[in-house]
Amino acid sequence: MSTNNDNYSQVHIYLPDEAATETMANALAPMLCGTHPDLPDQSPGGRIHLRGELGAGKTSFARALLRACGITGRIKSPSYALLESYNLSNLYFYHFDFYRFSDTREWVDAGFRDILRDDAVILIEWPEQAGGLLPLPDLDIKLDYADVGRNACIAAHSEKGQKWLTTLSLPAPIQNLPMAPDDAS
């Protein structure tokens, strides 16, 4: 994760179960859709990178976020197809999974650069597989195992992401911390 934006912050939160992960997704959804009442001038769209080991909850979070945004029907994991896309009232949602990439340029060769638009919701699992070629996300969410739950570290990398992070309200203890290079791995 890049640390060239030290003026942005991050929060750490413990997610005891999948319901807590869904709560976090539900809190972020209106921000991505441009419908959050505390951010009336914000346009829809944004980029979230999802990191963590296999089974850490990246796809569960993405599914919950897409549901909270209003996507209905089956929400498939993009593990094999690499990309699942959705459209809701002219807002496009692109859910990528780069886990299977063995070369950092594969996502470019696949033509994915063209759909990384600012006016779309972009969720990328395993962004590290693209090396440093991806643009910085608005938010970077890292999920780590913690007993039966997960620890989530949510880091802002843009003004939009910082607004989301400071607006985010979750019913669990959150600790705001400055972005430090040691925390960026």
Strand element count:
8
Count of helical regions? 4
Low-pLDDT segments: 172-185
Largest sheet: 8 strands, mixed
Portion in strands? 25-35%
Helix content: 10-25%
Class per helix and strand makeup = alpha/beta
- The topology string of helices and strands comes to EHEHEEHEEEHE
Mean pLDDT: 84
Instruction: Name the shape in a single word.
Output: globular
Q: Span between N and C termini?
A: 6 Å
Architecture overview:
- The protein is of the alpha/beta class.
- The chain contains four helices and eight strands.
- An eight-stranded mixed sheet has the order 3-4-5-2-6-7-1-8.
- Strand 6 (139-146) and strand 7 form a beta hairpin.
- The protein is globular.
- The N and C termini lie close together (6 Å).
- The relative contact order is 0.28.
- Mean pLDDT is 84; it is low at 172-185.
Short descriptors:
22% helix, disordered C terminus, single chain, 185 residues, alpha/beta, globular
In a few lines, what is going on in this structure?
With 185 residues, the protein is an alpha/beta fold. Helices cover 22% and strands 29% of the residues. It has helices at residues 18-33, 58-69, 106-109, 159-167; strands at residues 9-15, 46-52, 83-88, 91-97, 121-125, 139-146, 149-156, 174-178.
